Amino acid sequence: MSRSKILTGLSLLAGVAVIASGAAIAQDAIAKRKELMKTVGGATKTGSQMVKGEIPFDAAKAKASMDAIASGWGDFAKQFPKGTETGSETTAAPKIWETFQDFDTQGKKMAGDAAKASVAADQGLEPFKAAFGEVTKSCKSCHDDYRVKKK
Description:
Elements: H1 3-52, H2 59-77, H3 95-98, H4 100-121, H5 125-146
Helix pairs in contact: 1-2, 1-5, 2-4, 4-5
């Protein structure tokens, strides 16, 4: 086999490896975002159940739930590199990549609202209810703008 054929074959293999590794990175980022959103969803559910009286208000649990939301944004925002716009049944809207700065600003607002709700939890149910309402508004706003509607 000639040297040029060997080099051509190696180049093709390297190209396939790069494409495969890019696909794996995209799948990992999408899986990580889904995992982080489940954490946020669980934390929101806990807060919502307390606010609605479905479960007793527990300041420590309310605080922990809001802390999980407040601390998660930085890692979540990193899970949207170019190339992760599609695949794995993602519901991330293309607008995220088109207006990432606004997406990040909205996420930081939500994290800030959750941090305030965490502090409010120490003050009792009524202050928590008011602060938690701001968290859910932030969540809804981001989902309205940056999540593909499920059919």
